[in-house]
Amino acid sequence: MDMVEEAARKIETMEVRGASRIARFAAETLMNYALTIRGDFDAKMKKAAERLLNTRPTAVSLFNAINFVMRYEGKTEEEKRESLVRRAKEFIEWVDTAKQKIGEIGARRIKKNSVVMTHCNSSAAIAVIKRAFDEGKIEEVYATESRPRFQGHLTAKELSEYGIKVNLIVDSAVRYFIEDVDYVVVGADTITANGALINKIGTSMIALAAKEARVPFIVAAETYKFSPKTLLGELVVIEERSAEEVAGEEIRSLKNVRIRNPAFDATPRGYIDLIVTEIGAIPPEMAYVIIKERLGYAKIYDEEIVLSPNHFE
């Protein structure tokens, strides 16, 4: 389990960050771990899956990745291993191809000479921005710092190295600059059955400002970020991280100060103009259809919701 424990640590400490990257990393970890197992295959794989699943409770892509890979079949240990490896590779291919398609589809919704605002560090949102820039549509980008982990610095660096002019701003400056923006493009950690967006803390603030300023708010999200669990009424768990990410010891030690550090917030579907997925651009109201028809689910093993193996059909 050393391999799995190390992978879990990297996810928990955000050495591996971003919903898509986490999902892909989890699938790779399960695949590589399966190749090392000799004996008690099912029990060891279940323990590994549970350890990874508990690292980031909000990211449904992690849940979907693990459940997809763990629906392996076979009677012998070798058959089970081959099935799991095959499913892991299939999921990894899904991750790798989805981003390119999202970039192509999303760029079509961006007009020429546009200014775009983005938040945090979403590979899907960046794919849209880069593709639109390649097509001569992006003038410049406003990227929030995305405190307290400053993932926006990664976005600014990546876009700058790509040749795009970037304005790096503090999160609280969003309302000040929103009038200068033509589109907001963000990623997603989870899309719920009613079309709401769970994403990096501060996203809902940006969506509210965009709504007031009549700036289109676009979400770039792979279909494996839609949550089957919410179809049955389960609420998305909002992860609250350590106070150490927010303040130093001098502030943390104050007697009457409690530091709160939620990692995500919820943006109502009414603030979302469009969700761009690898199978097309949809209104948020179609989230239910994606979950039912694209992802499909079945109840197995103590009524755990899992992805259907025919999701590509």
UniProtKB/TrEMBL annotation:
The active site is at C120 (proton acceptor), D189 (proton donor). SUPFAM superfamilies: NagB/RpiA/CoA transferase-like. InterPro entries: IF-2B-related, IF_2B-like_C, Initiation_fac_2B_a/b/d, M1Pi_N, NagB/RpiA_transferase-like, R15Pi. It comes from the Archaea. Substrate binds at R56, N199, K200, K225. It holds the Pfam family IF-2B. This is Ribose 1,5-bisphosphate isomerase. Reaction proceeds via a cis-phosphoenolate intermediate. GO terms for biological process: L-methionine salvage from methylthioadenosine; pentose catabolic process. Keywords: Carbohydrate metabolism, Initiation factor, Isomerase, Protein biosynthesis. PANTHER family: METHYLTHIORIBOSE-1-PHOSPHATE ISOMERASE, RIBOSE 1,5-BISPHOSPHATE ISOMERASE. It catalyses: alpha-D-ribose 1,5-bisphosphate = D-ribulose 1,5-bisphosphate. Catalyzes the isomerization of ribose 1,5-bisphosphate (R15P) to ribulose 1,5-bisphosphate (RuBP), the CO(2) acceptor and substrate for RubisCO. Functions in an archaeal AMP degradation pathway, together with AMP phosphorylase and RubisCO. Belongs to the eIF-2B alpha/beta/delta subunits family. R15P isomerase subfamily. The lineage of its organism: Archaea, Methanobacteriati, Methanobacteriota, Archaeoglobi, Archaeoglobales. GO terms for molecular function: ribose 1,5-bisphosphate isomerase activity; S-methyl-5-thioribose-1-phosphate isomerase activity; translation initiation factor activity. Its EC number is 5.3.1.29.
